[in-house]
Amino acid sequence: MPVALGGQTVRLSDYKGEKVVVILFFPLAFSSVCTEEMCAVAEDYSQWQGFGAEVIGISTDSPYVNQKFAVECGAPFPIASDYNKTVSMEYQVLLKDMMGLKGVTDRVIYVIDRAGYILYVWKGEHPGVMPPLEEVAEIVEQAV
């Protein structure tokens, strides 16, 4: 899962055997629901770490936009760019059209266990739905 992040690469395999990984695909940095979601996760990040989990946010925004977004949200976790849409296509989370925008990532959450298996997937009715972060946290806590 190579995703550019400030010149670095984030790979799911880097966490295999060590951490549960929560992947937060989101449509557009700085939009209202995306900001609410990422800031909420940033605020509760110590809880996620306490579960032995790593969080990775991913959108098709540019690396520069996502770096600024991470700073604005105070995100201590990577908010990565899938600008070329490789990972989004692999996870089948690209929207064909969102208000005239093509190839934007849908709001989808994957929880991956330490062995690399998908434990949980959440997808809202539409990208404007805030995900059930408490439910996701419970899934992660049980997986550890």
TrEMBL record:
Gene3D superfamilies (UniProt xref): Glutaredoxin
Keywords, alphabetical: Redox-active center
Any one Gene Ontology molecular-function term assigned to this protein's record: antioxidant activity
Ranges for domain Thioredoxin: 1-144
Pfam short name (any one): AhpC-TSA
InterPro entries in the record: AhpC/TSA (IPR000866), Thioredoxin-like_sf (IPR036249), Thioredoxin_domain (IPR013766), Tpx_Peroxidase_subfamily (IPR050455)
PANTHER family in UniProt: THIOL PEROXIDASE
Protein name: Thioredoxin domain-containing protein
